[in-house]
Structure formats: structure tokens, C-alpha cells
Design a protein that fits this description.
mainly alpha, Arc Repressor Mutant, subunit A, Diphtheria Toxin Repressor, domain 2, 2 domains, two-stranded antiparallel ribbon, 2 strands, 70% helix
Amino acid sequence: MKIHRSSEDYLEAMLMMREKHGYIRSLDVAEQLGVTKPSVSYATKRLREGGYITMGADSLITLTPAGLEIAQKMYTRHKRLTEFFMQIGVSEAAAREDACKIEHDLSAETFDAICRYAQSKG
């Protein structure tokens, strides 16, 4: 099943919330992404149906292994691209924003080349 860009963003935000708080709540995801609670409800429904998350009786969200894999991939890309952009002189705010824009569309080949280049210059 092809996962949409917005779903990748939700999964990445969920991972960030888990790392920050130790748990994942819909409200925190909404705040992180700057979206409404109904938007998060719709997204979590789709992600549950796709097998990427589960929700407990306490309404806490858990990433499934499939969801965690996607979230980690996106989060790693985001962090590495942000670091690379800052390394070449881009401000942190612009680097984060630009990384978010391209992390989904960049080929594995190009991402790997950026990582190798940054490592050789770091």
C-alpha cells in the first residue's frame, strides 16, 4: 500500500511526540503539525485502517512496526537534511522548513549522496 505524504508527516510527528513525552496523544500531534483535532481524527482512522498505528482504550496512540519504520525513515531524513543545510550555511529555521518540504520526494540515491558528502565535509 502506497502511503501518502501527509500520512508520513503524521507518523513522523507521532514518533517525535513519543520521543519527547514517552507517549502519543492526538492533541499533541495536532499541535506539532498545526492542524485541527478533527484532521488528526481523520488521519488516525486512516492510519489505523492501514495498520500503521493502534489506539488503546486510553486514546493513546502506538506505532505498529510498519508505522515505526516509516516514521523513523522520515525523521532520520528530516534530521540529516536539516543538518546538511545548516552545514552549508542555511539558518536553522530555514533548514528545518526546507528539509520538511523535500524529505518525502528525495530519492534514496540523492539522499545517500547528500549523507556521504556531508560526512566527508564534517
